[in-house]
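Dear colleagues,

For the upcoming journal club I promised to circulate an example of a predicted protein-ligand complex. I picked one with zinc ion because it came up in last month's discussion. The inputs are reproduced below in full, followed by the predicted structure.
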Amino acid sequence: MPRKITTLVSLLVALALIAAGQVVAPDAALRATDEVLQSVSRIRGLEVKQPVKRGLKTRDEIESAVMRDLNESNTPEEFEASRKALVKLGLIDADFALRDYYVRLLREQVAGFYQPKTQEFYLAAWLPIAEQKIVIAHELVHALQDQHFNLRRFEKWPKGDSDAELAAHALIEGDATVVMYRYVFDQQGRAVDTRILGALIDMLKADSDADASKYPVLAGAPAVLRESLQFPYSYGASFVHTIMKNRPMADLNLAYTRLPASSEQIIHPDRYLLFDKPVKIEIPSLSERDWKQVDADVNGEFGYQVLLAEFIGKDRAQSAAAGWGGDRYALYENSRTGALMIAIYTTWDSERDAKEFFTAYSQRTQKRYKTDAAESSASRVVFNTAEGLVAIEMRGADVVILEGAASRAEIARAVEKLWQSKKQ
Ligand SMILES: [Zn+2]
């Protein structure tokens, strides 16, 4: 998956389901910060250690803040490498300007953001007034998280570990989103109805499409971008809501010490509670002659959901990606021809899960390249596509994929090497 998007922004889409609150002007809303902070502190069960700085930002100011964050977390080369991985997986067009689109998307969607570096939060100056206090509540949860758990430690995540980073991000955003919903109940003088809260969060999870007239940039975004942007809020909120059932919010604090380790644990909170640790995989280098490695990362269960759903539908994709045990991919670029090749090693909870993924990935490949398999058996499929050869091979509960090789000899050599990957 593309390297995450770790800026702590609140998105308008995450607010769309919330009933209108009190109507106040932005500066008046900001003046209410201390009062909102007291409410949020009580709801979340975290004391206020220090006052929180606040401000309003115009679209241009938000855009430059987002750009600065983006440049600090990813060099343009790293961003371009992630972009190429998405192109090779068939999730965006070859000429899609991912970085520009992403900035436009945030420009449209940002409702507010919290900056751990300066410990300040900002509200979008154009925000519909009914939503201002709700966004402030969300941002203030980040301020409290920061005062108690230090959010800066999440800013410099090791490279090539995006799935674990996405999981941590989902905890942070899910926590803030759940408290934000609880704040709305609180403002209406109602006790939190867990069933209604659960139903609201389920709606957030189910509805990733956007209203094109209201949010044209989001509605026109490639699914991978839309889904990645929304995952921490929707699945994160669902994760937090599930693990907090019948427990005080303060118990959630433990999760900041024992972080969720994968998108699998976020999607299936029971795996987090059992602490089903992901298998770490190290794949040997396939660099030779003209092939140079340009990117390497972990897709995770969420990554496979998205990349399969693009071609075989969401339901089948979700089912095939479940049972994920661990994975790693490496992207290679041919320095002479510019061709891309991706090598993937995946491991599954059982042989049945591996088989389901093997079958789903084969069907996805057939649709992706609009061509039938040139060779097919129960554990090996080869496609001859306009973008090189694709081999998908299964052994026990593991499946390896090599996509974009130039020749049969090359694929045989590389697949054999790929099977030498180390698991721990
Ligand atoms: Zn947030």
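Two points we might discuss: Residues 8, 10, 138, 142, 173, 176 surround zinc ion (CB under 6 Å). The mean pLDDT is 90.

See you all on Thursday,
B. R.
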